[in-house]
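Re: that chain you flagged

S.,

Sorry for the slow reply, it's been a week of failed gels. I finally had a moment to sit down with the sequence you sent. For the record, here it is as I used it:
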Amino acid sequence: MILNRLANSIRKQDWFTVFIEFVIVVVGIIVGLQANEWAQERQDRKQELASLERLFLESQNAFELLDENVQRKLRMNQMRRKAVQFSDSDSPVPENELPLKIGINTLPFFPAAVPVSLAYDELRSSGQMQLIKSAELRDQIAEFHSNLAFFNQRQEGIVDQSDWFFKVYQRHVTWDYNPEASTTDILLSTYDWETLRADEEFMFIAIGLLRNQLVAEESLIELRDQALSLCETLGIAIGAECNP
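Prediction finished late last night. Pasting the structure tokens below so you have them in one place:
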């Protein structure tokens, strides 16, 4: 309708009316575009909040899982350290050998840390991480997941080297079937501590694996602390308290 009046005014050479109606058309277009931008901005912020809430829950779960892994690693490394120290000494064999056996037997075990990251993976693959307006928060999220992936990659690389340990380890351990066992004690192990202590190759591998376990322990602690820091930052962003 406005366009029709504009055309009529042009034919009549009513330039003042043409100017006024042209301004009305331009203003209407600008207002319409601005309204679309506002609507898109509201939609983006709504999606951002939903994404941050999902990432917040994942960071809470990641902290809980990593903290469990840290506590387990601390307990196991304590046994591993004592077992290696015992193997490198002349101390008498204790009546209860089980902690020493566990410490030696688990030296080459480097499990991955796999907290759920479905929300992060979806946002990254779809390009929607950019909906998070804070570049600093995006960087913190990406850094945590990058460090987590690097940790797991390193764990996998160490596990690949465990065959050497077991080949040497088996020289000093014999296994017997326990017919009365229910589950974990179905195999009975007998350690020849005298030959094990005298085996320099075994001690070299065991000390190297213990070192790797201690390095993994430090990395796990750092990852756990990063997960907690991320959880707290995301909590502030959505107005929630990180309380894993």
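What I noticed first: The longest helix spans residues 15-87.

Talk soon,
D.
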